[in-house]
């Protein structure tokens, strides 16, 4: 009983003398765990090297967990900010073609000019049969038959460049280059029509 009273007095004396230390949020959180509080009390009441090492080991593990959690939280937060910043920058630099204004002084976008047709059942191997817009139709007439065929297979049939290359017995690079060239020609001609 005497030992217990001595321990209580010693512990109370320590807590009174070290209020600032014990009010530290990190220490408060550490001591809010029952096992850690018991080890803390043991190391004050019975200050052996073993008790101090046990308390140090528990505190180091707790402190590592707090630091690691803080690191992960801040990393996720800053990666989310950077991702958002990059995606907004990409959307600003490369807006979807349909979202671009028809003219430099117009607020109407291409998307607003597109007509929606619910029953769109055309079975044709010619991409021109699928086009309603007269400017796009004229632009498609100005590209080669091979380029029209590639655009048909990619955009109407939904094939990949690799699948088109196998079907047409050409290299995948040739198909990709031909498709990109056709799209550039179409964009150029559509831009010229809008500017005029």
Identify the notable features of this structure and list them briefly:
mainly alpha, elongated, 0% strand, Arc Repressor Mutant, subunit A
Q: Short summary of the structure?
A:
The chain is an all-alpha fold. The chain has ten helices and no strands. Helix 4 packs antiparallel against helix 5, helix 7 crosses helix 10 (172-195) and helix 8 crosses helix 10 (172-195).
CATH topology of the largest domain: Arc Repressor Mutant, subunit A
Fraction of helical residues: over 70%
Using the alpha-carbon principal axes, give the shape: elongated
| CATH architectural group of the largest domain | Orthogonal Bundle
Unreliable spans are none
SS field, number of helical segments: 10
Query: How can the largest sheet be summarized?
Result: none
Structural class: mainly alpha
């Amino acid at each position: 009983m005497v030992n217990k009273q001595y321990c209580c007095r010693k512990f109370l004396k320590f807590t009174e003398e070290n209020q600032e230390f014990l009010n530290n949020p990190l220490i408060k959180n550490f001591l809010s765990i029952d096992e850690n509080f018991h080890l803390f009390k043991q190391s004050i009441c019975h200050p052996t090297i073993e008790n101090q090492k046990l308390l140090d080991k528990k505190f180091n593990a707790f402190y590592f967990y707090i630091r690691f959690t803080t690191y992960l939280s801040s990393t996720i937060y800053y990666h989310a900010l950077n991702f958002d910043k990059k995606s907004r920058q990409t959307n600003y630099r490369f807006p979807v073609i349909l979202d671009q204004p028809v003219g430099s002084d117009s607020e109407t976008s291409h998307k607003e000019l597109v007509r929606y047709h619910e029953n769109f059942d055309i079975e044709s191997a010619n991409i021109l049969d699928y086009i309603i817009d007269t400017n796009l139709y004229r632009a498609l007439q100005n590209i080669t038959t091979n380029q029209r065929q590639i655009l048909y297979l990619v955009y109407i049939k939904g094939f990949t460049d690799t699948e088109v290359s196998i079907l047409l017995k050409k290299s995948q690079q040739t198909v990709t280059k031909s498709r990109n060239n056709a799209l550039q020609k179409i964009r150029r001609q559509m831009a010229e029509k809008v500017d005029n």
